Amino acid sequence: MRVLDDFTECENDVQLHGKVALVTGATSGSGLETARNLAKRGARVIIASRNAAKLSDAKADIIKTSGNENIVTRTVDYESLQSVRNFAHEMYLFEPRLNILINNVGAIALEDRLTSDNLHLMMQVNYFGVFLLTFLLYPLMKSSAPSRIVNVSSLAILLGYIDLDHVNDVGGFTFKYYANAKLADVLFTVEMNKRIQGSGVNVYSMDPGLIKSDFFRNSNNTFWKSFLNAGLMLVGRSPVRTALMPVFLAVDPRVANASGKHFRDCAEFYSSWFSNDAVLTKRLWEESKRLVGITPEEDWEILQVPN
Questions:
Q1: C-alpha dihedral over 223, 28, 141, 93, to 10 degrees?
Q2: Which residues are catalytically annotated?
Q3: How far apart are CA 261 and CA 189, in angstroms?
Q4: What gap in Å lies between CA 70 and CA 76, rounded to an integer?
Q5: How many CB atoms lie under 10 A from the CB of residue 116?
Q6: Is 145 strand, coil or helix?
Q7: CA 84 to centroid of chain Cα atoms
Q8: Residue 14 and residue 38: Cα distance in Å, rounded?
Q9: The pTM is what?
Q10: Which of 44, 77, 107, 232 has a CA 20 to 30 Å removed from the CA of 222?
């Protein structure tokens, strides 16, 4: 596996004045640093999370360190598909354009249960909510083209498995759901790229590697939570450097012709393995639309939004 040490391959001087970027999961860690990086480039940056207090703190931090006051906060709770729909509706009400969407939301060690939407909580937060938001915002991004979508996945995809007949079954190991959800993020990237070619919207997935963070904060096991988070702080990459990778995919002209590919360390990473099963990616796409309840009014594929 190629390891990036200095991150110089990710760096560029692309400016984003007049562009609008949305970063989810942006109140801490690499999500916060991604939003800060985009703000320093001059973009209008929308940061989204479920915690209004943390959003307020993150906004103040980004403004102070970037000098860019064009920072907007929006609340969204991926545990509720209605919350995701409300958020997308707000985007259309208040944002005439959207050039960059970075789906950075991710969580592990959530409860082993179904949500009110009858989806497994881990799968909904890490995949189905992401799918729904991206699907709903696509027409806005198309009208703002050229635009880019970056789906932040994980190396855990190598342990993932998509069984659509049992994807929401309760009673499994939390890491299994996380791996499956992050694999689904990559597979839907592949399928979406096929469906929007020629639209001016590019879509990528990426593995950020291990990051210094409190990623296991939701665990109920105090020992393992402390042990695993300590391990991340010891061997993980800094959030500042990790943020260079999604920003690279969101802005760099060198990947303009690499839509649909999976990246690690700012280089294509095993993309062919994910794209080989066209039957699976198509079925995942269609089943995801059904499970999140895409309505005829929301379905730009039925409405035939021209590419």
A1: 110
A2: 178
A3: 8
A4: 20
A5: 10
A6: coil
A7: 13
A8: 10
A9: 0.89
A10: 77
